[in-house]
Amino acid sequence: MIMTTDPVTLMKQEVGKAAAGRVKSDSIVGLGTGSTTAFAIQYIGERLASGDLKNIVGVPTSFQAEVLAKRYGIPLTTLDAIAHIDVAIDGADEVDPQKNLIKGGGAAHTREKVVDSLAKEFIVVVDGGKLVDKLGSTFLLPVEVIPMAVTPVMRKLEELGGKPDLRMGVKKAGPVVTDQGNLVIDVKFDDIADPASLEATINNIPGVLENGLFVGVADVVLVGEIIDGKPNIREF
Amino acid sequence: MIMTTDPVTLMKQEVGKAAAGRVKSDSIVGLGTGSTTAFAIQYIGERLASGDLKNIVGVPTSFQAEVLAKRYGIPLTTLDAIAHIDVAIDGADEVDPQKNLIKGGGAAHTREKVVDSLAKEFIVVVDGGKLVDKLGSTFLLPVEVIPMAVTPVMRKLEELGGKPDLRMGVKKAGPVVTDQGNLVIDVKFDDIADPASLEATINNIPGVLENGLFVGVADVVLVGEIIDGKPNIREF
Amino acid sequence: MIMTTDPVTLMKQEVGKAAAGRVKSDSIVGLGTGSTTAFAIQYIGERLASGDLKNIVGVPTSFQAEVLAKRYGIPLTTLDAIAHIDVAIDGADEVDPQKNLIKGGGAAHTREKVVDSLAKEFIVVVDGGKLVDKLGSTFLLPVEVIPMAVTPVMRKLEELGGKPDLRMGVKKAGPVVTDQGNLVIDVKFDDIADPASLEATINNIPGVLENGLFVGVADVVLVGEIIDGKPNIREF
Amino acid sequence: MIMTTDPVTLMKQEVGKAAAGRVKSDSIVGLGTGSTTAFAIQYIGERLASGDLKNIVGVPTSFQAEVLAKRYGIPLTTLDAIAHIDVAIDGADEVDPQKNLIKGGGAAHTREKVVDSLAKEFIVVVDGGKLVDKLGSTFLLPVEVIPMAVTPVMRKLEELGGKPDLRMGVKKAGPVVTDQGNLVIDVKFDDIADPASLEATINNIPGVLENGLFVGVADVVLVGEIIDGKPNIREF
């Protein structure tokens, strides 16, 4: 455990710890991506090591989750070997009051949606800055698309009212490539009035694999905030 | 031109010729996949060579279309370079009376749907054996899916009433892999009551790229039949 | 166990059983692809179930091996979790007297070479029909190549004296695609005089991932033959 | 043309202009990646537009080259349509006195090697900071590898004396993914005594697609330097 006195890090630790505390023995756990989720993975590992938790198998949503789970001693499995997921813990880039999410800042939203949507209980862990009244207010909507369809999909997204931009790489010439070998279009929507409908409409554009809208998937949101310089967690 | 006296081949030639005859000069043409479409590509090339047709650019839906277009001298472009497609010519595995289609026997339906759905006019070329009263009667519905999601997607397809099967390779150990690096699940549905709804529902399952239902995409269907031992073409 | 009286199947069973019999408890086992290897996987599973064998982890070389290992109860791991492989069991398309191999009929030779070359002991299981005096006598050499480089790689292979052909798909329009999303060129060489040199030369052509020559990788070859109508196994 | 008075940018413009000036009419040109090469692409386009150059077709090595070529009006083709490349212009991360290179900072070295190695004349454009006495002095050697083989390939690279590190993404969770869907290992070698031998040895490790050593590929190196505050170009 790295000791820290930085209030933001302390807060993320507390949220991760709270989520890890909800995992029960004998369960299959979806392991998400991101800095807060990373603390949850660490605490699940510590509970396993101490004997407080028994018989846990993890399903990673990303390379990062896989590496952390191995480091903290959480046995892993794949979706081929299981029939359901008991609980998934994952972050988000935006959360609205109905617990709908935008994810995909890390270009991992497709695998995350596959795993998170299989969980009986999906716990979202975020800091207070991710809360919005309306999705699309602060964050772009990521859309994963096969390379040959980038241009027509961009045109379709414009027809839907969005301003699309191909996500370009850093430490890589050209566009960011996802773990599936696809590209990511980040779309600015001024107003996402009906997230459920937009999610389905975009997924139905030929060439789109998955977009970052998660509507009706989250069950619990744990929000970390700093109140009077101290970390505080609330749930909704 | 290979001369043939086989009535089925003659019929396919005639349907391909009829479709190729509808292409106008100065247009962008989507080039589909399959044995009948192959004749259409050949005839477009011959019309270009004879000067009957001028200023054509093709957009291939597959490796096969690309190879044939190059052989018959049709200049090619990509979707990045054009803003629309004037006419697309492509085959189908099943066609219902509303011109809805099942495609994907060649595992190429994702790229085909991207191209065909961009065309102002999409001409389907089939022989009479592909006509069905209801989609799903004779052909399985292909669903392209990312490898890590095969098992949960299969389970979802069963919940929708289908009997899913992973398409296995020939001349390749393990499953067929698509040009996008994904796998194909072939699904038997006893009854596809509402193709439009099923198309959208399946595309919205996390991990699905595209399924073989083409609803409301085809404009014209050219059907080749053998009547009294002679090829005959009708349109609907 | 499926009972059979077919001598070829009986022979494959015996070879698979012989290979499985060489696996020791507490070891990491590379699990290959093919019909004879499938029997080895089955027998390893049976030895585990009976308690004759303990503490085995498998590393599959293909989807087929993974499915069989799960069916027969062999726990699996990935190359990220282990530092070596104790023994690998895999088939081959051709074996020469120096135990050099051609593999890749199933387009899985890249992953197979990664796994087999890590094994302290690599046991090849084949029937007598796979034995050749010189590699290339009866089987084409498979070369896995990235799609954009197919044409220049084919030209290079011709300069090396080969007759290259792109492997085309069945139940898939266009070429066979490997599990890595690449294509396979099958090359006819009239005479592979120096397999070690050809293996390195081809792997050094820009755009080539891996070719099917396995030189100096195999340690033991178990050959099944039918003598007087009965299965017989010899080793070299 | 963007006007600039920044000496570094001026120098890159001059080097790009010099390389573009060597392209002759009626030739097939390999178009590389990077900021200096970008100026070369721009100048080739301007020479085409002015009529100074005629009948040029470009072969892009990357998405970036493709976008720039389209912007500046250079017609493009693919390797399937041509039998050779007349001249290629590309950058490098390190150049030694024998004109051997390290490339791959943009994770595009595989496609670059395919294109650059086909060119009758390969012109390297760099600024003086890229010149080294020995390869590996300042830049890590990028190795493109299939995902399942990352760990054993890293171990092999350590045995060869390297310090390997998986290149991690920015604007993407987990590792950088290449245009081919593979990962990149950046390797620190204290001393690359024999680049030709190391290039072949690494390419022969199972699971490696291509490494960033370009030995014996470059024909001409154009070096931009600032002397007395003014851009200067020398060739070797």
Automatic annotation (TrEMBL), chains A, B, C, D:
It is an enzyme of class 5 (isomerase). The keyword Isomerase applies. The active site is at 112 (proton acceptor). Pathway: Carbohydrate degradation; pentose phosphate pathway; D-ribose 5-phosphate from D-ribulose 5-phosphate (non-oxidative stage): step 1/1. It catalyses: aldehydo-D-ribose 5-phosphate = D-ribulose 5-phosphate. Keywords: Isomerase. SUPFAM superfamilies: D-ribose-5-phosphate isomerase (RpiA), lid domain (SSF75445), NagB/RpiA/CoA transferase-like (SSF100950). Its EC number is 5.3.1.6. Substrate binds at residues 33-36, 90-93, 103-106, 130. GO terms for molecular function: ribose-5-phosphate isomerase activity. Pfam families: Rib_5-P_isom_A. Homodimer. Catalyzes the reversible conversion of ribose-5-phosphate to ribulose 5-phosphate. Belongs to the ribose 5-phosphate isomerase family. This is Ribose-5-phosphate isomerase A. It comes from Cyanobacterium stanieri LEGE 03274. The gene is rpiA.
